[in-house]
Amino acid sequence: MTSSPTAAGREPGDSPDSPGPGAPDGTYDRLRAELDTLTTEAFRSDLSEIDRLPTLEIARVMNGEDATVPTAVASQLPRIAAAIDATAERMARGGRLVYAGAGTAGRLGVLDASECPPTFDTDPSQVVGVIAGGPAALVSAAEGAEDRPDLAAADLDGLALGPDDVVVGVSASGRTPYTVGAVEHARRLGALTVGLSCNSGSPLAAAADHGIEVVVGPELITGSSRLKAGTAQKLVLNMISTITMIRLGKTYGNLMVDVRASNEKLRARSRRIVSLATGAGEERIESALAATGGEVKNAILTILGEVDGPTAERLLRESGGRLRAALDAARG
Asked: Model pTM?
């Protein structure tokens, strides 16, 4: 991969205090002034001697900082819930959930998307993540990519966005050009947009239909937004994908009935889920799974609804995959 310019046109090795090739005079002064306004970038003078502390004490301090994150997330629950309801509505019509971000935020989006197929048996194209710099940026820094809103537009154009799609832009600072550009471009294309950041009054939240700002405060290590900010983003992304899937009928109660049994552990889990849902014995569970090609949701329906495999498949298809609705139809 060829090296590309870093932020504001600076080439690797240039001093951040003087403009690099192609950067206009005053660029770094402006950027540093912006960073001074961000809570996530604030300097904690009370931690300036942290490197002198015993390891256990540093761990205690860090754990205490992490413990504040759920409270910050809780303050945004009404906004998170509104974004989830809007997302589920569009996905129920066949839309997709797309995460967009750079660096840590982008990696968290790709991670959350990658967990949906094995957890909820979604098609890999239904929940996707795009990251500034492409797949290579998952394991190494993509210098300069986060400063390119045009790259975000190109990445989203490759997905052929439509009005039923949802784009969630993720950025700790709330000002990353790639992420803000992704949300702005998606909105122009008619997609629903969500902006998740960790600073109040962010350009990202302002650009989105649904702005979520989880303000976690200054980091333990100044500017390292993979810490509290990263944790907050992971918690919110967990909520967005998980609760959306609950709304789409991908669970039965709190059971993961759309699990894709792709290995021995998941095959064992499938049998346990059928057992928990039905209370049936091992022989009946094995028979039900055999009759439904190993599909957990279908197997549960054959037992609780007392129908055969083909009927279970039809009832689930007619109910949009919602097991409770299919059960009502079977019992009716």
From this structure: 0.84
Would you call 218 helix, strand, or coil by DSSP?
Answer: coil
CA–CA separation, 119 vs 246, rounded Å? Answer: 12
Both 235 and 302 in one domain: the answer is no
176 occurs within a structural domain: yes
* Active-site hit among 11, 89, 115, 286: 115
Active site residue 313: no
Q: Is 115 a catalytic site residue? A: yes
Q: How many CB atoms lie within 10 A of CB 242?
A: 18
Same domain, 189 and 290: no
Which tens digit of pLDDT belongs to each residue from 130-141? 999 999 999 887
Residue 150 belongs to domain spanning: 65-247
Q: How many residues does the chain have?
A: 332
Residue 54's region, left for phi above 0, alpha for psi from -120 to 50, else beta, is beta
State the catalytic residue, choosing from 41, 65, 143, 146: 146
